[in-house]
Specification:
alpha/beta; eight-stranded mixed β-sheet; 25 strands
Length: 552
Amino acid sequence: MAEKLKIIALGGLNEIGKNLTVYEYGNDIIVVDVGMGFPDDDMYGIDVVIPDVSYLIKNQDKIRGIFLTHGHEDHIGALPYVLRSFNAPIYATRMTLGLVHLKLEEHKLLDTTKLVTCEAGDVIRAGKFSVEFIHANHSIADAVSFAIKSPVGTVIHTGDFKIDPTPIKGKIMDLTRLGQLGKEGVLAMLADSTNVERPGYTRSERAVGASFDELFKSCKERIIVTTFASNVDRIQQIINVAARYGRKVAITGRSMENSMRVATELGYTEIPQGVLVDINHIKSLPRDKICIITTGSQGEAMSALFRIAFSTHKQVEIQAGDRVIISASAIPGNENAVNNIINELYRKRAEVVSENAGALHVSGHACQDELKIIHALVRPKFFIPVHGEQRHLQTHARVAQEMGTPPENIIISDVGRVIELTANSAQLGGTVPSGRVFVDGYGVGDVGSVVLRDRRHLAQDGMIVVVVSLSGETGELVSGPDIITRGFVYVKESESLMEELREVALEALEACQVRNISDWATIKSAMKGELSRYLYRKTKRNPMILPVVMEV
């Protein structure tokens, strides 16, 4: 029986971010992107979320390479954590590898990882696969799509893309090559669904430049601009307009500084002579001659803009009249964090200009009409929408049907589900281990659903600790019960409740003694049960109750 091509998403389906797709044929596996996701609001203490790669760890001998479409965190952010478990050569374009290099250097993985620089047009052999790099437009330089050839046919994996007819640097997306591949015959296409709900076309990055020009031309105050650190084309436009109006530019924010360093070293950013200054030197310059470019467009706590707004930044403090330009849209879930910063900026009498006031941000993802162009050029036999929540995947499926793909040839998959392809068929198969792994500080995967449940419980209702000391010989009460609370009530104002809780705990202990119960686990359970029932009747709350029994 002939081998089937298996396509398995370990992330990026029914969610935004955490993109990781596995292609498997026989004894060969290639991995496309290894991204991270951001924690939900109820994931207390979690820093980042990464895909569960236990399937790849189990099959690491088959892995022939990791191929990266571009350098955004949701496509490369999990690499330092994943590469601790297995090793494979990484193939990517120069800008992407520059950002990966910084990550691996920070995690001390650089010496053990093989990095291979590729360019659009290159074809890499990886076992039974060959992977062709195809130039794409996105909101970061050097983005590519892949044409993945296998013994059963060619699969197009678009990655994140838009069709920008007037890009700031480089050329328009290589539609010609996609059209050629379409004529040769494409078995399947996995395409970006992020912006599929928006009709029409995504505006060109160049449209933002005119808005910046207007905002700089009329301003006599200091200008602070925040945008995504990886959007070097946007940063280039800000630098260009600042230089045009005689302003010096200072950069602040670690990710912005790293991104600028990589982009400048690789020639993706051209800084006019004498325009860039150290952030420590801006106090000596006139206010109308300063432009600060900073991180924090998503309201991240401890980002440079957050620290500037809340007066904890060492070099920059908001002054009345400062014009703060937010050149980004809030990622779903970040709206409150962004609004908190905006409100604080207003409180300090700054002028805030967001994308609501004009064309200050354009998306890096294709809208419906651009997606239709790609479908028309590629003409895949089977279509698999990726990179989106369920509503995005379903909407993209309808767009594919409009473009002539039969409904039975469209597969909406889920994380961990195996799609099996032959030259003439595509169907959903079984599942592989998958899910979310939580990173908390240096811990990877040591915080699971049980720990998160406890954190939610503590956050919602607080905690009560009941401490009793029992005689090791007789089992009689020596001291206590003592009640300690955290996050439940303010003890000094709830003395009567604390006394009532002591009485309830004491009654539970006495009941155990009457029944000659000396097992500590049973005693703890009895105290916990009685206190829980009493508290719910009295307060309608369910705090976490921790009984502590000490032997004296």
